[in-house]
Amino acid sequence: MQFRAKVLTSRARLITWTILGATLLLIGIIVSIYGHRLSSKIRSLTDVADRISVGELGIEIETRSQDEIGELADAIGRMQESIRLSIERLRRRH
Questions:
Q1: What's the whole-model pTM score?
Q2: How far apart, in whole angstroms, are the C-alpha atoms of residue 68 and residue 91?
Q3: Tens digits of per-residue pLDDT, 4-21?
């Protein structure tokens, strides 16, 4: 009876560690994928901001996300349009 209890305890422990390991692996994969997608979007917006800063005001900002990154992209788009309008007003004055 005691031997059987040890075997069942050992199996339960093995199953628990297996489930824990698989769960941690799955969480790691999900975080890695999400992190890669997030950093890719940030790199893209950084590239757009750099191009705007050197005068490329016609560059298109592709925004599909509805999260904070999407809000940042919208803000950069508004800034781009504001700069474009300011330059047009300055040109009309001179």
A1: 0.70
A2: 35
A3: 888 999 999 999 999 999
